[in-house]
Structures are given as structure tokens and as C-alpha cells.
Write a sequence for this structure.
């Protein structure tokens, strides 16, 4: 899987106005967005506090070690967001509000509004969900303020594997459901602890498909509170996680259905060539993560997108069209040809009923 993912490695354009002015920065001593970075900011993590209402033994954010409370003021937060939006050639478009536990801040709604006022399109709220569960109005307030997605910590389907919020999860989901606030489940997976929950967590997501938008597995970071002598016991990799998904679903979702994040670069390059100006591109390291889209049909069957789409063929076609546009070919002729060609990459017999993927793709390219 690693070598397959490596084929999609791409370098980005970097940032024209890095925040670290030093010409030859040295990691990690000159930390910050510097001229060594080859990718613009895709999702900025904005730490609102190092306070937390939990004390998870595996957490890499060892807040107690700081010895003091870190909480930037509203003015400081606004300045941070302004810096993100000032980046060139592509301003930051998305932010994740994180911590600690950001919901511990009484001014959380004001912070969300600041993010939207400064022009951020997407705001995620990274949370353990405890306050979303205990305060039915909080989901409504953060949704109205501008939160697009709740990035919800969720480590398993049992109280043993998910002691942090197992009993609160039903109410958290119900409150978000009422507020029409989508959720991404974020399990931290630890070998020998909750790695057997990988499949059941995905199934739980499908069982709550009306409110759960996705699952973002995070292999445990072997830092912070993780004792060094136990790292081999607890270590788990992205291919390990994909293998467990494949085994749990008996191949219905297979390893061949997963692609690394930078595989989307041909789409970005095509849209950029079409628009004639720099566009958002996900040129992170190919080993940072792999993903897939899975549809659930009326009968409950799971259909990964690569099962009915020639993904590689589509990427190669878009790369070809992007080059034609760069060479000066008329954009309307290219789009007209695409309207017919896109259908050739889709197996209509296997495509989920009611899904018009060519139309969706065409609308994406036009916008």
C-alpha cells in the first residue's frame, strides 16, 4: 500500500509570504510556516485552550506539562485568522478549532463568528462532545455561528474501548441531529487496545448516516503520555487500519478502494487551468493519509466509489485536459468534450441508484 500511495506524491507551490522570515530555517527550532513548506495551509489547527475536561492517557496534547493555562484572547485569535487569510498565492480556507477542549471556552460562539467574518469557508469543531451532549442548545448556537462539522472524538462502540464518552454519544448525536450539524467520527486507534473496533466504528457511522459524514481514523501518536517501552505494543499504521476494515467487511470495502490524499492533484490542476489562477491543492505527503468514499444503497449494500469509477483513468484524463488548457485550447470546447467523456469512466451497472456522478463532477468543475 505504501508504494502504491507513493506513486501519487506531488510537490505543491508552497507559500509566497511565509511567516518565518529566516532564509535557511532549521526544524524544529524555527517552527512555523517557512519557505521549506511545499504545500499551502489546507486545514489550520487553531488551539483555543489547553484546558480539558478529560485526562486520556494516550493524548499527545500533554497540557499539564505546560504548567500554565494557554488561551489566546479574541483579538489574538482574529489576528491569527487574518494571517491565515493573508497567505499567498492561496489564502487559508478552512480551520479546525481545537485544544484541549474548545467547548470549555464561554466565548466559543464569538470565536466561530470571527472565523466566518474573516472569510474562512469551513470551520470544524474538534471536541469530545461532552458539552454538546449536556447542553442541547450548544449545537444550535455553534451551527448558527458557522460551524460546518463537529470533529468528534470516538474511540469505540463499547464502554471498555470508549470510556471517554460512550454513554453520552446517543445524546450528542441526537442534539447534533436536531441542529442539522454534521459529524465526523475521530477514533484514536491503539494496537491491542481498540484496534478490534475499527470495523464496528465504520458500521456505527453507516448506521447513523443521516448525521455522520465520515470517519477519520488516527493511529495513536507515540509521544506525550505514551511510555517509550510500550510503543511497539501500541503502534499501528494506516495500512493496518485499512486491512482491518477490509477484513471486517469481507472485502466489500477493500484496500484497492483507498487512495492517498495527493491523488486529487489532477482535479486541482484542471480547475486551476480552467480558472486561470491558483487553486486549492492537497499536496501533503502521500503517507499522511488514505481515504475513500463509500455509498450505501437502498438494500444496505456498501459500494465504494472506485468499484464503479475508473479513478486512475479519470485522473489521467483530467491531467491531459489541464495540459491542453495550459497550451491555450478553448475552455468551452474542453468543457463540451468533458460533458460526454466523463460518463465513460463510470460503470452505470454498478453505480448506486439515484446517483448522477457526471453531473456532480461537471458542476464542481464549472464552479
Amino acid at each position: 500500500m505504501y508504494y502504491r500511495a507513493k506513486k501519487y506524491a506531488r510537490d505543491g507551490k508552497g507559500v509566497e509570504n511565509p511567516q518565518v522570515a529566516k532564509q535557511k530555517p532549521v526544524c524544529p527550532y524555527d517552527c512555523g510556516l517557512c519557505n521549506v513548506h511545499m504545500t499551502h495551509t489546507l486545514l489550520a489547527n487553531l488551539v483555543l485552550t489547553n484546558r480539558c475536561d478529560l485526562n486520556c492517557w494516550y493524548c499527545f496534547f500533554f497540557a499539564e506539562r505546560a504548567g500554565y493555562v494557554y488561551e489566546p484572547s479574541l483579538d489574538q485569535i482574529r489576528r491569527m485568522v487574518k494571517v491565515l487569510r493573508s497567505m499567498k498565492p492561496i489564502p487559508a480556507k478552512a480551520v479546525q478549532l481545537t485544544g484541549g477542549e474548545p467547548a470549555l471556552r464561554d466565548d466559543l460562539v464569538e470565536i466561530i463568528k470571527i472565523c466566518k467574518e474573516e472569510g474562512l469557508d469551513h470551520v470544524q469543531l474538534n471536541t469530545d462532545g461532552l458539552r454538546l451532549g449536556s447542553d442541547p442548545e450548544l449545537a444550535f448556537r455553534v451551527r448558527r455561528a458557522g460551524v460546518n462539522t463537529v470533529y468528534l472524538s470516538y474511540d469505540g462502540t463499547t464502554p471498555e474501548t470508549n470510556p471517554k464518552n460512550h454513554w453520552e454519544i446517543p445524546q450528542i448525536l441526537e442534539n447534533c441531529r436536531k441542529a442539522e450539524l454534521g459529524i465526523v467520527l475521530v477514533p484514536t486507534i491503539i494496537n491491542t487496545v481498540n484496534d478490534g473496533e475499527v470495523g464496528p466504528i465504520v458500521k456505527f457511522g453507516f448506521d447513523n448516516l443521516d448525521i455522520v459524514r465520515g470517519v477519520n481514523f488516527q493511529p495513536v501518536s507515540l509521544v506525550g503520555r505514551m511510555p517509550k517501552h510500550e510503543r511497539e505494543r501500541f503502534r499501528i499504521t494506516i495500512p493496518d487500519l485499512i486491512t482491518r476494515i477490509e477484513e471486517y467487511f469481507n472485502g466489500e470495502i477493500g484496500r484497492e478502494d483507498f487512495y492517498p490524499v495527493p491523488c486529487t492533484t489532477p482535479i486541482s490542476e484542471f480547475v486551476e487551468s480552467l480558472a486561470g489562477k491558483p487553486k486549492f491543492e492537497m499536496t501533503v505527503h502521500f503517507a499522511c493519509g488514505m481515504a475513500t468514499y463509500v455509498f450505501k444503497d437502498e438494500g444496505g449494500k456498501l459500494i465504494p466509489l472506485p468499484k464503479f469509477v475508473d479513478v486512475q483513468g479519470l485522473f489521467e484524463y483530467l491531467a491531459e485536459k489541464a495540459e491542453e488548457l495550459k497550451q491555450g485550447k478553448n475552455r468551452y470546447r474542453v468543457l463540451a468534450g468533458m460533458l460526454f467523456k466523463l460518463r465513460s469512466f463510470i460503470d452505470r451497472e454498478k453505480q448506486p441508484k439515484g446517483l448522477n456522478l457526471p453531473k456532480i463532477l461537471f458542476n464542481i468543475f464549472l464552479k
Summary: The mean pLDDT is 93.
